[in-house]
Amino acid sequence: MSEINLKISQLRAFVAVATCQNFSAAALDLGVSQSTVSHAIATLEEELGVLLLMRGRHGATLTPIGQEILSDARQILGLLESIATKANLDRGLQSGQVRVAAVRSIATHILPKVIAQFCRKFPMVQVVLVEYDRYLEVEQALRDGQADIGFTVLPTAPEFDTWILFYDEFVVLLPPTTDKDDRPLTWEQLAQLPMIINQRSVHHNRVVDEHLAQFGQTRQIAYRVREDSTISSMIQQGLGAAIIARLVAEPIPDEIQVKHLPVPLERVIGVAILANSLLPSATFAFLDVAKAVWCPVATPPASKLL
């Protein structure tokens, strides 16, 4: 098989003429003379040994083989553009910083792996991590320009571009004194448990209560606290149980029992940027690393679950 020497300029001219169906329009689109386009097409056809375009008074139309080759030519040009984009991105990431906003559970269990991989790939770029108590504060930081990228619960406001990273299940944490039973937890058993809630987790409490209400259930709240670590300690002492997002509960002490809800409930964790905003290239590089680490949708770290 003889070697074929194709030039990028030939493929660009071919795709332009095929798209515009006119040599003059293609030349205008490429910013070159019509004779340059005609010469590129002619030498391409000579190199391939086939006729790609039918010339006529009303323009240019693809031959059957031209139609087949067009998709390949577009794919090649697309790959070349991708290569150039990645190279330009890397050149632009020799300095600068990316500001990341997240709540404690994300900052503790999700971001270290992402940051480590990003820093290995772009060691000259500084990652600034800012932690917040609530997801609403993360989103406000994006609005105020205090952060470039934020990790939050989806769905969120339409002003953000978002991507799903993983699903996080709400689980039931039971005291060590609870009889161990491998059977699924029932609504009747759940209704008898004194519950401990974090009063600052307004969104999570609403999500849980709305889910329980669908099945005619409510929580018997025994304690309202302000820290998730307090919930864990109180459960260890047999003071109550809790329904909590698994990622928030981590690390779960070995003696605490963990069970599914009778009907599962999940929250969606995603990453967000402010739509239509001018962001540093490091932001998109960090976003790519985060998606590579956690997508396709994965399950976050977890302890035992019955």
TrEMBL record:
Q: Does the record carry Kinase as a key word? A: no
Any single GO CC term annotated in Swiss-Prot or TrEMBL for this entry: cytosol
Name any one Pfam family assigned in the record.
LysR_substrate
Question: What keywords would UniProt list here?
Answer: DNA-binding, Transcription, Transcription regulation
- Asked whether the keyword Cytoplasm is assigned, the reply is no
Q: Which GO terms describe its molecular function?
A: DNA binding; DNA-binding transcription factor activity
Q: Which residues form the HTH lysR-type domain?
A: 6-63
- What protein family does this chain belong to? Belongs to the LysR transcriptional regulatory family.
UniProt-recorded name of the protein: LysR family transcriptional regulator
